[in-house]
Amino acid sequence: MIPEDGLSEEEVMGELEKRLSLDLTFDSGKILGSMCTYPHPLAQKIVRKYMDRNLGDPGLHVGSQKIEREAIQMLGELLHLKKAHGNIVSGGTEANILAVRAFRNVSDVEEPELILPKSAHFSFLKASDLLKVKLVWAKLNKDYSVNVNDVESKISDNTIGIVGIAGTTGLGVVDDIPSLSDLALDYGIPLHVDAAFGGFVIPFAKVLGYELPDFDFKLKGVQSITIDPHKMGMAPIPAGGILFRKKKFVDSISIPAPYLAGGKVSHPMITGTRPGASAIAVWALLKHLGFNGYKEVVREAMENALWFAEQIRALKGIYLIREPMLNIVSFGAKNLKTIERALKDRGWGISAHRGYIRIVMMPHVRREHLEAFLEDLREILAT
Ligand code: 0PR
């Protein structure tokens, strides 16, 4: 109920402090299954300072709009695109929805179908429901990457696009995007790469010497990429990214809003009013950390992943689902449900998929947190 007379600031803050003590926090070291992290300190400053900027009315906030364009351009260059089109959006879900919407709109297919791996994120189910695009699921190989032959066998006159994943939600698997790109070019179908997670990992991991397939605009069949700054980019929520190779995709989803301050304004995204602070924070982090700053973050995350996988392999009663490709390690067990419950009872914030538990080596996850987790896991396995 809204109180008749307002409470004092102290009362409100005190109440919140008590109520929100139920939440797990990233600095507790207990959150091991999330793809989010504590936003970088610079990003926090920026949000506080620029929280009033609304990119929904860019004519009022011309500077913010230019910063957003530059952030998109920097992300484009990171992903080997000279001139990038797109936006900083609310997250990977919105980015994926926009890509499907653009593919549908540039096609003239009446009963549109999208081919996507069985491992795709549930945001595509939302896209399908909203956009009336039928999802055609492609099988996975034994290593959990998409089976490209199966993708090819599912192409029809109704196919408006193909999806490949660069860092699957559950296992961090990077699909064979080069082969998907070849298919896309052969059949003249656009390929969308969901690199919501991997977009801020793969470019740096490659430079560090990890063998990973190409996944970005270097491949000519790739027409759009989801890359989320609010995952490994360390930006505050909400900050997703959608990039298109060609302007025609953005044009196909742009809704005019001519009465807004800027005059010729159009909105290609789902949201109307949207946080300028998010885009400004993305710009600032890219400038501040630079390529080498992100490379160091990824170096530690990858080293933690390989070390943790090694530890898991040594334990009896659980098994590694597959060798980690990125900084995600997932393990299974016969009595997985019991293990999951015991871990959760001990306060661990893990993510339990069907058949395995996922540990994501985000920047807030330190070796000592993993050691404490393993200690608990060993105890649980011994009982
Ligand atoms: N694409 C991929 C490959 C993803 O993994 C995700 C989310 C999305 C798209 C959608 O992104 P948004 O959630 O930004 O819309 N992956 C995480 C997941 O479902 C999201 C997440 C983040 C879950 C933090 C839990 C959590 O604590 O696992």
From TrEMBL:
Highest taxon of the lineage: Archaea
GO process annotations (BP): carboxylic acid metabolic process; coenzyme A biosynthetic process
Pathway where it operates: Cofactor biosynthesis; coenzyme A biosynthesis
Enzyme class: lyase
InterPro entries recorded: GrpII_AminoAcid_Decarb, MfnA, PyrdxlP-dep_de-COase, PyrdxlP-dep_Trfase, PyrdxlP-dep_Trfase_major, PyrdxlP-dep_Trfase_small, Pyridoxal-P_BS
Pfam families: Pyridoxal_deC (PF00282)
Keyword Lyase: yes
Enzyme Commission no: 4.1.1.11
Gene Ontology MF terms: aspartate 1-decarboxylase activity; pyridoxal phosphate binding
Enzymatic reactions: L-aspartate + H(+) = beta-alanine + CO2
Family indicated by similarity: Belongs to the group II decarboxylase family. Sphingosine-1-phosphate lyase subfamily. Belongs to the group II decarboxylase family. MfnA subfamily.
Protein purpose: Catalyzes the decarboxylation of L-aspartate to produce beta-alanine.
Protein name per the record: Probable L-aspartate decarboxylase
